[in-house]
Design goal:
By secondary structure, the protein is of the alpha+beta class. The protein has one domain: OB fold (Dihydrolipoamide Acetyltransferase, E2P) (Beta Barrel). Helices cover about 20% and strands about 50% of the residues. It has a five-stranded mixed beta barrel.
């Protein structure tokens, strides 16, 4: 059996980067994914899915993704169980092993645009 999840959606907030006790980077974020059909009111419903990334991928997500950015996620579904106050909580999340940045964070995009503009200004254009 294959445990494979593929999602495209928008980040609800910036990824939260932290380190485990042994120094491994881990980033968590929530992806808003529209369902492919409309409800009775004619509106698309949205699912909010928790995503976990590790090591270099976690660092890159924290560096280049921001709230509202579109991202492609490929990974596996894992279920974490926890207990609190005598209740059992089930927390599904996607352990991502591939993240494609479909949009970059606004600050990075602005910086990239400024760099491209300065390169164009340096060109000797004959007109």
């Amino acid at each position: 059996m294959e445990n494979l999840v593929v999602l495209i959606g928008r980040l609800v907030d910036r990824p939260e980067l932290r380190m485990t006790n042994n120094g491994t980077p881990v980033a968590n974020f929530t992806l808003a994914v529209e369902r492919p059909y409309k409800n009775k009111k004619g509106e698309n419903e949205v699912d909010f899915i928790d995503i976990v990334t590790w090591r270099g991928l976690a660092e890159n997500c924290a560096k280049y993704l921001d709230k509202g950015c579109r991202a492609y996620i490929k990974g596996s579904l894992q279920i974490r169980k926890s207990e609190s106050d005598g209740r059992t909580y089930i927390n599904p999340e996607v352990n991502a092993d591939n993240v494609r940045f479909l949009d970059f964070a606004k600050d990075n995009q602005k910086r990239k645009t400024k760099e491209e503009n300065s390169k164009l200004e340096d060109l000797d254009v004959p007109f």
